[in-house]
């Protein structure tokens, strides 16, 4: 943690309601960290606001997975210069992955109006840092009133990453893999359910590598499913290396497990998968999709692709295109390669224009498949977890807009007949 000289501690806990605005970039891990930070602020009498001009404190939670993400976060901080000038007593915190990668010194030098910098590796100590500014706050506040998400709640089950994919910055900014004790995780699941959550989303960089003491990933999922009020359990993101029979059995048997799996593949070319050090080849990946669908035939799978990895030939790219078809993905995020990780020395050797062209071709393929998969759900009965009175998500994570019906409210489960699809959203008729 880096602290500026002009940031005198202000021990003023629990006076009039102050407001904090938390701006989050990046992945669900960052969103989960932001939720924890929100809890710390609430303990100190703050309420959340989405409006910077109403905020007494601002947190920018940064991402650095690709250069574009880092640039976005930095320009957001730059825009806060004016905010700080107009509120000399306002406090500005920069946290997260770009903060970790660039370092407190760099950020404070570039943006001297920042009060404190907390990188991802130190994020567990954020509460202590806030204590220095706003006092100790309430220690034992009722958990229900502190959490923000009414229907879905993130629960982090591991930090860091055990792998070293060549293109990835995560192991260096989030550190080595560390798994939380099962009892602690289950305690949080219960607290979240008590606070109104009906869907729990377990988070980790290689979430299915979970093991702590005698509890493996399948065991953790089964135990979490015993929590009464929890109606659905999802997890993000698994890695192909860590699937085992115990998991496939749980996936087949446990109805509360979401039938959606986000399984990043990155490339369809064996040559590139090897260069990326992914630890599997195309055949192994497709084998896992087969096992998943054998365990749960209605499962929907989504993925991530990287386009323009150094050395990607037209043939490699065609392998990716054909995998996009063969995988039957409900959707896929497609990213242009950004120089990071061990591959950092390797400049993209294609012209920007060529990479853009490949990206377009891939997106076109992905969209076509998405549409087909969405349409294939028409005529089916689905269980919808409501996020509002007239919309929600299927277990396979398709968004559903429901016809009006009495008695529906956020957090409820309703059976619906799917009768159409509009853009990326299914249309459903609730069945009483
Ligand atoms: N360049 C482009 N995409 C990347 N991703 C991770 N690192 C990079 C990079 N250097 C993508 C991967 C990953 C997702 C979260 O971000 O597809 O699955
Ligand atoms: Fe998440 Fe990785 Fe971005 Fe950090 S760098 S916020 S772990 S995507």
Describe the structure.
- The chain is an alpha/beta fold.
- It has 4 domains: 2-134, 3-Layer(aba) Sandwich (Rossmann fold); 144-258, Transcription Regulator spoIIAA (2-Layer Sandwich), CATH 3.30.750.210; 293-376, Transcription Regulator spoIIAA (2-Layer Sandwich); 381-430.
- The protein has helices at 28-43, 67-86, 97-102, 104-110, 126-134, 143-146, 170-174, 182-194, 217-225, 245-253, 270-275, 282-295, 314-326, 352-375, and strands spanning 2-3, 18-24, 46-48, 57-62, 91-96, 116-119, 152-156, 158-159, 178-179, 199-203, 211-212, 215-216, 232-236, 260-262, 300-307, 331-336, 381-386, 391-394, 399-402, 413-422, 425-431.
- A hairpin with a 4-residue loop joins β17 (381-386) and β18 (391-394).
- α9 packs parallel to α10.
- The longest helix is centred in the C-terminal third of the chain and has 24 residues, at 352-375.
- The radius of gyration is 23 Å and the shape is globular.
- The protein starts with a strand and ends with a strand.
- 5'-deoxyadenosine is lined by residues 65-66, 167-168, 264, 266, 304, 306, 335, 337-338, 340.
- Iron/sulfur cluster (SF4) binds at residues 26-27, 29-30, 63-65, 69, 96-97, 169-170, 173-174.
